[in-house]
Amino acid sequence: MKGTKILILTGWDSDGYVYAHSAALALGAFPDADVRGVSKARLPQTLAAAQGYARVLILGVSLGGDPQHLARSVRTLVRKGVTLSWISALQPPASVDAATRKTLSPFVRDVSLQEAVCLCLGVKDDLAKSVKVNILLLDAAGYAHRNLDDDSVFGAAVRHVARGEGSQAWSADEQALVRSYGALSNAPLTGRSSVMSEVRRLIRQVARHPDVRVLILGESGTGKEAAALMLHHLSARRDNEFVPLNCAGSNLQLLEDAFRGHEKGAFTGATEARSGIFERADGGTLFLDEVGDLPLDIQAMLLRILQEGRVTRLGGDGRKGGGERRVNVRVIAATNRDIRQMVREGRFREDLFYRLSAIALRMPALREHPDDIPALARDFWGRGRRDGWRSLSKAQMDVLAGYGYPGNVRELANLLDRAYALDERDFGKLLVGYRDALGDGEVLSPGHSDRLDDMTSLHIRRVLEKHGGNVSHAAAALEISRNTVLKYAK
After folding, report:
1. Chain-centre distance of CA 101, in angstroms?
2. Which end of the chain has less neighbouring CB within 10 Å, N or C?
3. C-alpha–C-alpha distance, residues 369 and 367, integer Å
């Protein structure tokens, strides 16, 4: 049995909010319809799952995915009495059979998608201003789809556009998403690999428990701070401060002052009182990056604050009103060190380790999910203005996909920034210059190790450089596996 409801399927905006605009126009004809965003690759599966609808409108999405699956899904819906329409200014792909094309008509030539929707549904386009005032929400909805696996906001955003509503009509959750998007959009955890999908799933699950402490493990450049930001902004603490502190490279006195703050006159130069990071993060989240670098004395102080839930400023007498503050802070710590080994060696307090690691979250190295490199590259490349380079070519993507990235996601971003700054479109040449600039052209010296592993590593890195950082080419030249190249290239 067919249902009575209508489903509007449209694409995700990449330029000009065309899809959201078109879906909002369709809502003018069908105000009670459901709206979902869908990629062309997922269209057959989405149609197969479209149960209980009397009519399904597909707006602008190319007829992609497996053509046989698409044909089966269309035939199944038609047998159930569902009316299907594909309104698009795109030429139907040759892979789609004639029966499916006929069922999904109309296809409208030589007009924009918005014009096609107006022609087919008999609605007037007067939504341009409404689209503009909801751009932030649409941006946030697209981010939630790509990086949080959350499609719940897109339909609501389109409905605000259709009704001509502005930010005053956004729900509390929608406003919170927009605020989070502002912080998270520059720290993405992009990728559709099973590895990254699982990371995001764990983050969403843990974020629901805003008091649980989390220890994030992983190599430099894997996105540990991005994960911490996501944990904060998906939690009930998101309306309060996210306060980061890099624990590496500071001396004992500076770290103590950073943690505790100080009262006026507490030491020479303390001309005014200053709150510490625990006070600033009260109600919110404190992110301690490179926590494994904390001196033991500071570790003891941190443990005491976590146990007691209060902090006393330097120069205070420890009494209420005399420099002592009670604090309610969620602590997220991160390190690229083997912190369990540090505990065994006595360089990190075992009791503090357990205090910090109620949940341990490991961020994977980029070499563990190389299939995500194209998506990450497109995401990084799309930021800011890329004059004359609207997209990365297949040849450029092939070079990026073949490199080992010892610096992980951060190194990929740096490579793309270097390409843009130098206007270098030959990415093979770019990689050779990049490694040279980092001083990786090693030479043997009298003090160089004679260990076989060290010599092998040096030789493999040299061959990798010779082939522009392309792991596959280097492995072929050396007649070894890609995994062996990656192992020694570290």
Report:
1. 37
2. N
3. 5
Identify the pLDDT of residue 124.
Answer: 93
Tokens of residue 456, six digits? 């092998």
Q: How many CB atoms lie within 10 A of CB 346?
A: 9
Q: Does residue 151 sit in helix, strand or coil?
A: coil
Domains of the chain, earliest start first: 5-184 (3.40.50), 194-362 (3.40.50.300), 369-489 (no CATH)
Based on the number of CB atoms within 10 Å of its own CB, is 206 exposed (0-12), middle (13-18) or buried (19 or more)? buried
Identify the bridge partners of residue 320 per DSSP, sorted by sequence position: 324
Phi-psi region of 216 (alpha: psi -120 to 50; beta: other; left: phi over 0): beta
Neighbours of 317 (CB within 10 A): 12
Q: Is the model's pTM score more than 0.85?
A: no
Q: Tokens 């004359």, residue?
A: 388
| Dist CA 477 CA 490 (whole Å) | 18
| pLDDT lower than 70: segments of the chain | 1-3, 13-16, 185-188, 317-323, 383-390, 435-456, 458-459, 462, 465-468, 479, 489-490
